[in-house]
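Field: sequence (string)
Field: structure_tokens (string)

Example rows 1 and 2, in order.
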Amino acid sequence: MKINEFVEVSFKEGATFIFQVDSNEIIYQCSPFSGKEFVSVNGKLVSESQNYKLKSNHKFMVDGVEYEITFESKDLIKGRNECSLNKEGVLVKLYKLKYIKPPKKPIYYWIPPIILGALAGIGIAQRILPIWLCIAFGVLAFVLIFISELKSSIENWDCEVVDV
């Protein structure tokens, strides 16, 4: 999911942060599954590592100037992360990424799955409906809930950009 033109986040693909400094484009990418991290400057890989720590640093030089990218998971439970770029020890830009908990669903949201589940249960208990139809109702109720929960949790990231 693209949050803005400089930050992209995905549970599957990880995170990408783009920094525009002077005439350079510095890109930091990380994966939550493999732990791989990559830093490239103008398309050329300058730093790479693999770790599962809560904080990582990448120091590199561009045209004789020292840069450092720091990625830190501030709170894993609440989903707060920060990615910063320092130039010669001075903070240039900071991205504060946070996961926004989706709002609770209203009661009418649960009515269709409850009705399907009740029909499946009553159909099996009273032997009114064939078993295959009762199982289909139960599976359909589960699929409805699963898909709507998945859709509502995808677009819930926010990014605050701090320019110095």
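Row 2 begins here:
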Amino acid sequence: MIALESFHINDSSALISNIKDKKALLQFAGPMYRFPLTKDQLEVDLSDENRTLFKIIDVENQNTIGHAQIFLKDETFLLGRILIWDENNRGKGYGKKVMQELLKYGFSHLNRELAELNVYDWNTGAIECYKKVGFVIDPAVKNEAKIDDETWVSINMKIHRDTFQL
């Protein structure tokens, strides 16, 4: 169904073209990027030795259908900046498979027992997807981001290596 391949700077135009506005960018990347997304911002991530960037490939037709990243932290690794471009491809199991592939990569390549992610509390579809993979909400970790006149609350979810199953 999908495969993760290394993201290179020459892949950036596809990602950039799929971030339509500042709300889409905040949902995708959290508050670290500034709209409009640029190659320079992506080059900073690519140069960070603690960050691994992927393009998500639909194996059947060899098309790039999305983007994802893993960030190595002191105690965990963080899954983030996950985006399936085409909304018509959402709800078809791609998200679950992407999460499984990211966790498989992280637990086999990174010396960490715990993976985590952050998701906005209104993004119920993503939260349910992450729960299906085995993530649980950590009620002790919440953050807020402001956009226009709105405040978005980010919740944290975690999964231990021992509970991850493909």
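free_text_note (row 2): The CA atoms of residues 132 and 140 lie 21 Å apart.
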